[in-house]
TrEMBL record:
Keywords, alphabetical: Lipid biosynthesis, Lipid metabolism, Nucleotidyltransferase, Phospholipid biosynthesis, Phospholipid metabolism, Transferase
Protein name (record): choline-phosphate cytidylyltransferase
Xref: Pfam families: CTP_transf_like
Gene name as annotated: PCYT1B
Catalysed reactions, as listed in the record: phosphocholine + CTP + H(+) = CDP-choline + diphosphate
Pathway(s) annotated for this protein in UniProt: Phospholipid metabolism; phosphatidylcholine biosynthesis; phosphatidylcholine from phosphocholine: step 1/2; Lipid metabolism
Ranges annotated as biased composition (Low complexity): 315-335, 351-362
GO cellular component assignments: endoplasmic reticulum
Family the entry assigns: Belongs to the cytidylyltransferase family.
GO biological process, alphabetically ordered: ovarian follicle development; spermatogenesis
GO MF term (any one): choline-phosphate cytidylyltransferase activity
Keyword Nucleotide-binding: no
Length: 369
């Protein structure tokens, strides 16, 4: 690796590449052996001290325009992002995603400050440094994690990790006696801005917890934590437990009210269905009744037909005025003869016979007397 001299540094103290000072044949012989971006997510990102960049080839200085065009083609563009990353949340992940996707072939290094530096310059953290390191290692956008990162980036640090660009939001970050700790990076053309995610930050999350402290203290007491572990006094512990009991009773009453409302709703729904079905059945019954017994119903027509048949059966039949003569059948018995009735069928053939029949009828009358 080439050794930097005082002349090889810019006005801001950031080293320049010595690629122009090396012979061309030497540059062609040395190949880049920089670590490549992670292609699989089956393991966490490594730490920098475990897989540091030992590439001996010179890293020429790139402009942002060149990097966005995909140059150089023989190595990835090494992008650095740093922070505290306490209570790792979606805002952190989105910032790292932006840093990872700045260029077509980016290798993202993430520096995490130690507890000592953070407590000195920013304040206490909820998570310790080991927890914060592990949170970054398991982010899919991170290719390498640098532990105990410096609060202010130095030329030696940038040269050691072969950093091409630094990604951070563009808001001036005043700390450690400086109005903007990234001022010299911006002046050197190595700064690439990212966008902050509004509505989410570590300070916002801590504010929510502090604002609703009683709620979370009661929550953890209910989950089995002791008052000593929560740093809660004896009186507050009893108060929180009593409030938990009151909340349980309120929840039970609320559940009973909801169930009763649901039961009443079901009863109303069923009664409505029953009334509707009863109305439909009653309409159907009334329709059938009118169809049978109404003015033009089938029952009236049937009654009229049957009454007509009964009247026809009971009334005597009238003999026809003229009927054709029929010959007696030999099977029928002869009709009885009455001597006092004249025989209409056989009129007297002569006056003598007529007088004889009249005389016989008169004699018969005298005998009866």
């Amino acid at each position: 690796m080439p050794v930097l001299t005082t002349d090889a540094e810019s006005e801001t103290g950031i080293p320049k590449s010595l690629s122009n000072e090396l012979p061309s044949d030497t540059m062609e012989e040395i190949e880049h052996t920089c670590p490549q971006p992670r292609l699989t997510l089956t393991a966490p990102a490594p730490f920098a001290d475990e897989t540091s960049c030992q590439c001996q080839a010179p890293h020429e200085k790139l402009t942002i325009a060149q990097a966005r065009l995909g140059t150089p083609v023989d190595r990835p563009v090494r992008v650095y992002a740093d922070g505290i990353f306490d209570l790792f949340h979606s805002g952190h992940a989105r910032a790292l995603m932006q840093a990872k996707t700045l260029f077509p072939n980016s290798y993202l290094l993430v520096g995490v400050c130690s507890d000592d530096l953070t407590h000195k310059f920013k304040g206490f953290t909820v998570m310790n440094e080991t927890e914060r390191y592990e949170a970054l290692r398991h982010c899919r956008y991170v290719d390498e994690v640098i532990r105990d990162a410096p609060w202010t980036l130095t030329p030696e640090f940038l040269e050691k990790h072969k950093i091409d660009f630094v990604a951070h939001d563009d808001i001036p970050y005043s700390s450690a006696g400086s109005d903007d700790v990234y001022k010299h990076i911006k002046e050197a053309g190595m700064f690439v801005p990212t966008q902050r995610t509004e509505g989410i930050s570590t300070s916002d999350i801590i504010t929510r917890i502090v604002r609703d402290y009683d709620v979370y203290a009661r929550r953890n007491l209910q989950r089995g934590y002791t008052a000593k572990e929560l740093n809660v006094s004896f009186i507050n512990e009893k108060k929180y437990r009593f409030q938990n009991q009151v909340d349980k009773m309120k929840e039970k009453v609320k559940n009973v009210e909801e169930k009763s409302k649901e039961f009443v709703y079901k009863v109303e729904e069923k009664s409505h269905d029953l009334i509707q079905k009863w109305e439909e059945k009653s309409r159907e019954f009334i329709g059938n009744f009118l169809e049978l017994f109404g003015p033009d119903g089938a029952w009236k027509q049937m009654f009229q037909e049957r009454s007509g048949r009964m009247l026809q059966a009971l009334s005597p039949r009238q003999s026809p005025t003229s009927s054709p003569t029929r010959g007696r059948s030999p099977s029928r018995s002869p009709s009885p003869t009455f001597p006092w009735l004249p025989n209409k069928t056989s009129p007297p053939s002569s006056p003598k016979a007529a007088s004889a029949s009249i005389s016989s009828m008169s004699e018969g009358d005298e005998d009866e007397k």
